[in-house]
Amino acid sequence: MRLEIGENALMAFDTLRTHKTRSFLTVIGVVIGITALISVASILVGLDQDIRGFLDDYGTDTLFVFKLQMGFRMGRLTAEERMRKSLTLEDALAIQELCPSVKNVTVEVFPGFGGHGPRRAPPTARYKGHEVFQVEHTGAVPTYEQVYNARMFKGRFFNEAENLHRAEVAVIGYDLADGLFGAEDPLGKEILVGGANYEVIGILEKRKGQFFRDEGADKVVVVPYRTYRKNNPADEEHFIGVQAFPGKKAAAEDEVRTVLRRRRNVPFNKPDNFGLSSSEQMAGEFRQIMSSVALLIAVISSIGLLVGGVGVMNIMLMSVTERTREIGVRKAIGARRRDIIWQFLTEAITLTGAGGVIGVLLGVGISALINATLPSLPSAVPMWAIVLGVAMSMSVGLFFGMYPAVKAARLDPVEALRYE
Fold this sequence. Notes:
By secondary structure, the protein is α+β, with helices and mostly antiparallel strands.
């Protein structure tokens, strides 16, 4: 049996070499379908790895608390969401004091939101003749470093004494340091942000993840909380980060929810008027969105495979007609029906399998091209997609080649030998 399959495969490859153009045109639909499958799978897997790395970089035991629900949402804010009151520093202190499963709490303050977005445009950072536009300027307490797993590339983070005394110091992002200072050492230099001068005492390492951050997105300026409030007294929007003890994130989430519902006077029969999220939850929401996209692309790819399958059936029926005498000779010298069936099935599977391999190669090439030209759009070809692509293409040949193969096997040898 193994020898027969090998011989049939050799005959199939010989047919492909003999009719190169016809074979390629026959499986063009399969090639397109598999290329789309591999390309989309590589982007979806790359995005999943990217968002996973981006969220996990902040710590797997970290919870994010804001007046609005964090995550991937569609549509505008509801009237109730627009009217929600902001979180406060006191909320963060209450969480730290009343939640036994919470290890650390940090809080950031930044400009508030109006009806359609931030109340003012992001500020510009300046140093001598250099400017970086749209920086992310926030004030934070020193526990920011521990809660958000902020690693220092150079220098240090500010301490509680600098926060209490409203010191004009700042920790800046890697990209901002590169944009303002280039090869010059930023430590000890003063930058102008939002009308105030700050001495740079530290530079943060680059965060993981590319897609959810614009190119050069590590453009953050973090200053002590009290310093920010002194320089921007009208800004009152707060974001709270909560670090749970290892293995106690679920308990910490329940405790934080209980404390905030009590502090914000939420009735027992009403939903939360604040958002409480984790990296796993946001990653799950992202996967739900991507699964819908994957389903749509799978349908589109299936159309291409269906078109390719119809083409394969058509060309195999033509091949049966062209090789009627050959079939008659084989049956006359003892070939069984199953031998004829396997001969044509192997040819159909080889034909579509070759198209699948071409589609895989094109998909891998497109993935590599995306990585080379669009580094902010991650792409990684998973092995399961390659195996699935080739298997699907061969399955198309098996399914659509069955009817021509059976038709060839049922030919009467005498009539076949008479065929001109």
